[in-house]
Amino acid sequence: MTEDEKPQLPFTLEEGLKMFLHGVRHSMELGMALEEITPQGLVVRLPYSDKIIGNPDTGVIHGGAITSLMDQACGLAVAQAMAPDFDITPTIDLRIDYMRPAEPGKDVFAYVESYRKTRSVVFTRGIAYQDNRDEPIAHCVANYMRMGLSKVPWTPTKTVGERQ
Amino acid sequence: MSINEIVLQCRETNDYARLVEAIPYARTIGMGCIKAGEEVIFTLPAIKSNIGNPTLPAIHGGVLGGFIEQSAQLHLLMVMETPTYPKVVDLSIDYLSAGLFRDTFAECRVLRMGRRIANVAVTLWQAKKEEPIATARAHLLLS
Q1: pLDDT of amino acid A153
Q2: DSSP string, chain B
Q3: Minimal Cα–Cα distance from A145 to chain B, Å?
Q4: Best A94, A140, A155, A158 residue to mutate vs chain B (most B CBs within 10 Å)
Protein backbone atom coordinates (compact mmCIF):
# COMPACT_ATOMS: atom_id res chain seq x y z
CA MET A 1 0.00 0.00 0.00
CA THR A 2 1.47 3.32 -1.02
CA GLU A 3 1.16 6.49 1.02
CA ASP A 4 -1.73 7.64 -1.17
CA GLU A 5 -3.79 4.50 -0.60
CA LYS A 6 -3.85 4.70 3.21
CA PRO A 7 -7.41 4.73 4.52
CA GLN A 8 -8.46 8.26 5.40
CA LEU A 9 -11.38 10.63 5.03
CA PRO A 10 -12.11 10.83 1.32
CA PHE A 11 -12.22 14.61 1.43
CA THR A 12 -11.23 17.59 3.55
CA LEU A 13 -13.42 19.35 6.08
CA GLU A 14 -13.88 22.20 3.61
CA GLU A 15 -15.02 19.82 0.86
CA GLY A 16 -17.37 18.08 3.29
CA LEU A 17 -18.93 21.35 4.42
CA LYS A 18 -19.34 22.48 0.81
CA MET A 19 -21.06 19.19 -0.07
CA PHE A 20 -23.41 19.74 2.85
CA LEU A 21 -24.17 23.31 1.74
CA HIS A 22 -24.59 22.39 -1.92
CA GLY A 23 -27.16 19.75 -0.97
CA VAL A 24 -29.41 22.35 0.63
CA ARG A 25 -31.59 23.55 -2.18
CA HIS A 26 -32.92 26.76 -0.69
CA SER A 27 -29.44 27.93 0.31
CA MET A 28 -28.29 27.33 -3.26
CA GLU A 29 -31.36 29.18 -4.49
CA LEU A 30 -30.20 32.23 -2.51
CA GLY A 31 -26.61 31.78 -3.73
CA MET A 32 -24.95 31.12 -0.36
CA ALA A 33 -21.27 30.18 -0.36
CA LEU A 34 -18.77 29.03 2.25
CA GLU A 35 -16.26 31.89 2.48
CA GLU A 36 -13.84 30.91 5.19
CA ILE A 37 -13.19 28.27 7.82
CA THR A 38 -11.62 29.49 11.07
CA PRO A 39 -10.43 27.37 14.03
CA GLN A 40 -13.56 28.34 16.00
CA GLY A 41 -16.13 28.63 13.26
CA LEU A 42 -16.81 29.72 9.72
CA VAL A 43 -18.06 32.46 7.43
CA VAL A 44 -20.90 32.08 4.91
CA ARG A 45 -21.75 34.69 2.27
CA LEU A 46 -25.26 35.64 1.15
CA PRO A 47 -25.03 37.66 -2.07
CA TYR A 48 -27.36 40.61 -2.56
CA SER A 49 -30.07 39.81 -5.09
CA ASP A 50 -33.44 41.18 -6.12
CA LYS A 51 -35.27 38.05 -5.02
CA ILE A 52 -34.52 38.58 -1.32
CA ILE A 53 -35.69 42.20 -1.19
CA GLY A 54 -38.17 42.74 1.63
CA ASN A 55 -38.96 46.39 1.02
CA PRO A 56 -39.19 47.28 -2.69
CA ASP A 57 -39.21 51.01 -1.85
CA THR A 58 -35.76 50.90 -0.29
CA GLY A 59 -34.22 47.70 -1.68
CA VAL A 60 -33.46 46.50 1.88
CA ILE A 61 -33.31 42.70 2.02
CA HIS A 62 -35.85 40.72 4.00
CA GLY A 63 -34.99 39.51 7.50
CA GLY A 64 -36.10 36.05 6.38
CA ALA A 65 -33.13 35.77 4.05
CA ILE A 66 -30.85 36.60 6.98
CA THR A 67 -32.64 33.98 9.10
CA SER A 68 -31.99 31.43 6.34
CA LEU A 69 -28.35 32.49 6.21
CA MET A 70 -27.91 32.17 9.99
CA ASP A 71 -29.70 28.80 10.22
CA GLN A 72 -27.56 27.49 7.37
CA ALA A 73 -24.29 28.89 8.73
CA CYS A 74 -24.95 27.63 12.28
CA GLY A 75 -25.89 24.21 10.82
CA LEU A 76 -22.51 24.15 9.08
CA ALA A 77 -20.78 25.13 12.33
CA VAL A 78 -22.49 22.13 13.96
CA ALA A 79 -21.19 19.85 11.19
CA GLN A 80 -17.75 21.37 11.68
CA ALA A 81 -17.92 20.69 15.44
CA MET A 82 -19.04 17.08 14.79
CA ALA A 83 -16.41 16.30 12.13
CA PRO A 84 -15.03 13.81 11.34
CA ASP A 85 -18.20 12.20 12.69
CA PHE A 86 -21.46 12.97 11.02
CA ASP A 87 -24.91 13.22 12.53
CA ILE A 88 -28.36 14.47 11.61
CA THR A 89 -28.82 17.65 13.64
CA PRO A 90 -32.19 19.39 13.37
CA THR A 91 -32.56 22.93 14.70
CA ILE A 92 -34.22 22.98 18.13
CA ASP A 93 -34.60 26.73 18.27
CA LEU A 94 -33.23 29.90 16.80
CA ARG A 95 -33.28 33.43 18.10
CA ILE A 96 -32.30 36.40 16.01
CA ASP A 97 -31.95 40.08 16.89
CA TYR A 98 -31.82 42.64 14.09
CA MET A 99 -29.53 45.48 15.12
CA ARG A 100 -29.85 47.57 11.96
CA PRO A 101 -31.18 47.16 8.41
CA ALA A 102 -28.80 45.66 5.87
CA GLU A 103 -27.46 48.19 3.38
CA PRO A 104 -28.99 47.56 -0.06
CA GLY A 105 -26.71 46.31 -2.81
CA LYS A 106 -24.18 44.74 -0.44
CA ASP A 107 -23.58 41.08 0.37
CA VAL A 108 -24.21 39.80 3.91
CA PHE A 109 -21.79 37.56 5.76
CA ALA A 110 -22.55 35.22 8.65
CA TYR A 111 -19.71 34.65 11.11
CA VAL A 112 -20.73 31.78 13.36
CA GLU A 113 -19.26 29.31 15.82
CA SER A 114 -20.29 26.31 17.84
CA TYR A 115 -19.34 27.13 21.42
CA ARG A 116 -20.47 24.00 23.25
CA LYS A 117 -21.17 20.41 22.30
CA THR A 118 -22.84 17.92 24.64
CA ARG A 119 -24.03 14.36 24.02
CA SER A 120 -27.44 15.60 22.87
CA VAL A 121 -27.14 19.25 21.94
CA VAL A 122 -24.80 21.53 19.99
CA PHE A 123 -24.93 25.25 20.89
CA THR A 124 -24.08 27.85 18.26
CA ARG A 125 -24.01 31.62 17.99
CA GLY A 126 -23.08 34.15 15.38
CA ILE A 127 -23.45 37.53 13.80
CA ALA A 128 -24.43 38.83 10.39
CA TYR A 129 -22.43 41.76 9.03
CA GLN A 130 -21.66 43.57 5.80
CA ASP A 131 -18.50 45.71 5.81
CA ASN A 132 -17.32 45.26 9.34
CA ARG A 133 -17.62 42.51 11.93
CA ASP A 134 -17.68 45.19 14.65
CA GLU A 135 -20.92 46.59 13.23
CA PRO A 136 -23.20 43.56 13.01
CA ILE A 137 -26.60 43.84 11.42
CA ALA A 138 -27.89 40.84 13.37
CA HIS A 139 -27.05 38.56 16.29
CA CYS A 140 -28.15 34.94 16.42
CA VAL A 141 -28.13 31.98 18.78
CA ALA A 142 -29.33 28.56 17.66
CA ASN A 143 -29.31 25.12 19.27
CA TYR A 144 -29.23 21.84 17.40
CA MET A 145 -30.17 18.34 18.53
CA ARG A 146 -27.87 15.39 17.91
CA MET A 147 -30.06 12.56 16.65
CA GLY A 148 -27.31 9.99 17.09
CA LEU A 149 -28.33 8.35 13.83
CA SER A 150 -24.89 7.99 12.37
CA LYS A 151 -21.44 7.84 13.85
CA VAL A 152 -19.68 6.98 10.64
CA PRO A 153 -17.37 9.47 8.97
CA TRP A 154 -18.73 11.40 6.07
CA THR A 155 -18.62 9.58 2.80
CA PRO A 156 -19.00 11.10 -0.65
CA THR A 157 -22.15 9.09 -1.34
CA LYS A 158 -23.95 10.20 1.80
CA THR A 159 -26.42 13.03 1.34
CA VAL A 160 -25.92 15.31 4.26
CA GLY A 161 -29.10 16.84 5.63
CA GLU A 162 -29.29 20.34 6.98
CA ARG A 163 -32.05 20.02 9.53
CA GLN A 164 -34.80 17.63 10.47
CA MET B 1 -46.74 52.78 -6.10
CA SER B 2 -45.09 52.74 -2.66
CA ILE B 3 -45.65 49.95 -0.14
CA ASN B 4 -47.71 52.21 2.12
CA GLU B 5 -49.99 53.13 -0.78
CA ILE B 6 -50.45 49.47 -1.65
CA VAL B 7 -51.25 48.74 2.01
CA LEU B 8 -53.96 51.41 2.07
CA GLN B 9 -55.45 50.01 -1.13
CA CYS B 10 -55.37 46.44 0.26
CA ARG B 11 -57.09 47.55 3.44
CA GLU B 12 -59.89 49.14 1.45
CA THR B 13 -60.46 46.06 -0.68
CA ASN B 14 -59.57 43.54 2.08
CA ASP B 15 -57.47 41.75 -0.56
CA TYR B 16 -53.79 41.45 0.33
CA ALA B 17 -52.65 39.47 -2.69
CA ARG B 18 -51.29 42.66 -4.26
CA LEU B 19 -49.16 43.42 -1.25
CA VAL B 20 -47.68 39.91 -1.15
CA GLU B 21 -47.04 40.26 -4.88
CA ALA B 22 -45.20 43.56 -4.31
CA ILE B 23 -42.66 42.06 -1.90
CA PRO B 24 -39.94 40.16 -3.80
CA TYR B 25 -38.95 37.95 -0.86
CA ALA B 26 -42.57 36.88 -0.27
CA ARG B 27 -42.78 35.95 -3.96
CA THR B 28 -39.50 34.03 -3.76
CA ILE B 29 -40.82 31.75 -1.00
CA GLY B 30 -44.24 31.61 -2.71
CA MET B 31 -46.33 32.95 0.17
CA GLY B 32 -50.00 33.72 0.04
CA CYS B 33 -52.81 34.63 2.41
CA ILE B 34 -56.38 33.53 2.89
CA LYS B 35 -58.89 35.89 4.44
CA ALA B 36 -61.93 34.36 6.10
CA GLY B 37 -63.96 37.20 7.51
CA GLU B 38 -61.79 38.82 10.15
CA GLU B 39 -59.48 35.82 10.32
CA VAL B 40 -56.41 35.47 8.19
CA ILE B 41 -54.24 32.45 7.49
CA PHE B 42 -50.92 32.76 5.70
CA THR B 43 -49.87 30.00 3.34
CA LEU B 44 -46.51 28.64 2.26
CA PRO B 45 -47.08 26.16 -0.57
CA ALA B 46 -44.66 23.24 -0.94
CA ILE B 47 -42.24 24.43 -3.59
CA LYS B 48 -38.93 22.76 -4.33
CA SER B 49 -36.80 25.86 -3.99
CA ASN B 50 -37.76 26.03 -0.28
CA ILE B 51 -36.28 22.63 0.54
CA GLY B 52 -33.51 22.46 3.14
CA ASN B 53 -32.87 18.83 4.03
CA PRO B 54 -32.91 16.99 0.69
CA THR B 55 -33.18 13.47 2.15
CA LEU B 56 -36.44 13.80 4.11
CA PRO B 57 -37.18 16.14 2.28
CA ALA B 58 -37.94 19.04 4.64
CA ILE B 59 -38.46 22.76 4.29
CA HIS B 60 -35.46 24.91 5.16
CA GLY B 61 -35.66 26.22 8.75
CA GLY B 62 -34.72 29.65 7.48
CA VAL B 63 -37.63 29.67 5.05
CA LEU B 64 -39.98 28.91 7.93
CA GLY B 65 -38.31 31.80 9.78
CA GLY B 66 -38.84 34.11 6.81
CA PHE B 67 -42.43 32.95 6.50
CA ILE B 68 -42.99 33.73 10.19
CA GLU B 69 -41.50 37.23 9.87
CA GLN B 70 -43.45 38.07 6.75
CA SER B 71 -46.68 36.72 8.27
CA ALA B 72 -46.23 38.83 11.41
CA GLN B 73 -45.54 41.94 9.31
CA LEU B 74 -48.56 41.43 7.07
CA HIS B 75 -50.80 40.58 10.00
CA LEU B 76 -49.88 43.83 11.77
CA LEU B 77 -50.46 45.82 8.57
CA MET B 78 -53.99 44.44 8.54
CA VAL B 79 -54.80 45.40 12.13
CA MET B 80 -52.81 48.60 12.75
CA GLU B 81 -54.72 51.87 12.94
CA THR B 82 -52.34 53.76 10.70
CA PRO B 83 -50.36 51.31 8.64
CA THR B 84 -46.61 51.74 8.32
CA TYR B 85 -44.55 48.75 7.29
CA PRO B 86 -43.39 47.17 10.59
CA LYS B 87 -39.75 46.27 11.13
CA VAL B 88 -38.79 43.03 12.87
CA VAL B 89 -36.67 43.75 15.95
CA ASP B 90 -36.23 40.19 17.11
CA LEU B 91 -37.58 36.74 16.52
CA SER B 92 -37.41 33.51 18.49
CA ILE B 93 -38.45 30.27 16.81
CA ASP B 94 -39.00 26.88 18.44
CA TYR B 95 -38.94 24.10 15.87
CA LEU B 96 -41.27 21.43 17.24
CA SER B 97 -41.10 18.90 14.45
CA ALA B 98 -39.78 18.60 10.92
CA GLY B 99 -41.37 20.92 8.39
CA LEU B 100 -42.06 18.24 5.83
CA PHE B 101 -42.35 18.98 2.13
CA ARG B 102 -46.01 19.93 2.38
CA ASP B 103 -48.06 23.10 2.39
CA THR B 104 -47.51 25.06 5.59
CA PHE B 105 -49.89 27.48 7.28
CA ALA B 106 -49.37 30.30 9.76
CA GLU B 107 -51.62 32.15 12.12
CA CYS B 108 -50.61 35.24 14.10
CA ARG B 109 -51.88 36.55 17.41
CA VAL B 110 -51.04 40.05 18.57
CA LEU B 111 -50.38 39.64 22.29
CA ARG B 112 -49.56 43.27 22.83
CA MET B 113 -49.89 46.24 20.55
CA GLY B 114 -48.00 49.13 22.08
CA ARG B 115 -47.50 52.51 20.52
CA ARG B 116 -44.06 51.62 19.23
CA ILE B 117 -43.61 47.88 19.67
CA ALA B 118 -45.92 44.95 19.00
CA ASN B 119 -45.50 41.42 20.36
CA VAL B 120 -46.79 38.80 17.94
CA ALA B 121 -47.08 35.05 18.51
CA VAL B 122 -47.00 32.92 15.38
CA THR B 123 -48.04 29.27 15.06
CA LEU B 124 -47.09 27.14 12.07
CA TRP B 125 -48.79 23.88 11.13
CA GLN B 126 -49.15 21.47 8.25
CA ALA B 127 -51.64 18.65 8.80
CA LYS B 128 -53.55 19.95 11.83
CA LYS B 129 -53.55 23.23 13.64
CA GLU B 130 -53.52 21.30 16.93
CA GLU B 131 -50.18 19.81 15.94
CA PRO B 132 -47.94 22.82 15.31
CA ILE B 133 -44.58 22.25 13.60
CA ALA B 134 -43.17 25.50 14.99
CA THR B 135 -44.09 28.35 17.28
CA ALA B 136 -42.47 31.74 17.38
CA ARG B 137 -42.69 35.11 18.97
CA ALA B 138 -41.53 38.32 17.42
CA HIS B 139 -41.23 41.96 18.39
CA LEU B 140 -41.89 44.45 15.65
CA LEU B 141 -41.25 48.16 15.57
CA LEU B 142 -44.31 50.06 14.46
CA SER B 143 -42.93 53.55 13.89
Answers
A1: 52
A2: --HHHHHHHHHHHT--HHHHHH-HHHHHHT-EEEEETTEEEEEE---GGGB--TTTTBB-HHHHHHHHHHHHHHHHHHH-SS---PEEEEEEEEE-S--BSS-EEEEEEEEEE-SSEEEEEEEEESS-TTSEEEEEEEEEE--
A3: 11
A4: A94
**Residues of chain A that touch chain B, judged by Cβ-Cβ distance less than 8 Å:** 23-27, 29, 50-57, 61-65, 67-72, 90-98, 101, 159, 161-164
A150 lies in some domain: no
Q: Domains of chain B (ranges plus CATH)?
A: 3-141 (3.10.129.10)
Q: Taking CB atoms and an 8 Å limit, are B65 and A95 in contact across chains?
A: no
Mean pLDDT of all residues in B74-100:
92
Q: How many domains does chain A have?
A: 1
The nearest CA of chain A is from the CA of B8 a distance in Å of 15
Option in B3, B52, B65 nearest A57 (CB): B3
Is A158 a domain residue? no
CATH code at position A46: 3.10.129.10
Which residue, among B20, B28, B25, B15, has the nearest Cα to B3 in the 3D structure?
A: B20
Domain that holds residue A113: 9-145
More confident residue, A124 or B1: A124
| Prediction pTM value | 0.90
Ordered per-residue pLDDT tens for chain A, 164 residues: 454 554 456 789 999 999 999 999 999 999 999 999 998 899 999 999 999 999 999 999 999 999 999 999 999 999 999 988 888 899 999 999 999 999 999 999 999 999 999 999 999 999 999 999 999 999 999 999 998 875 555 554 444 444 44
Residues of chain B neighbouring A162 (CB-CB closer than 8 A): 52-53, 60-61
Q: Is residue A164 part of a domain?
A: no
A38: in domain: yes
In the beta sheet, which residues pair with residue A141? A95, A125
Residues of B within an 8 Å Cβ radius of A: 2-3, 22-29, 48-56, 58-63, 65-67, 69-70, 85, 87-95, 97-99
pLDDT at A150: 59
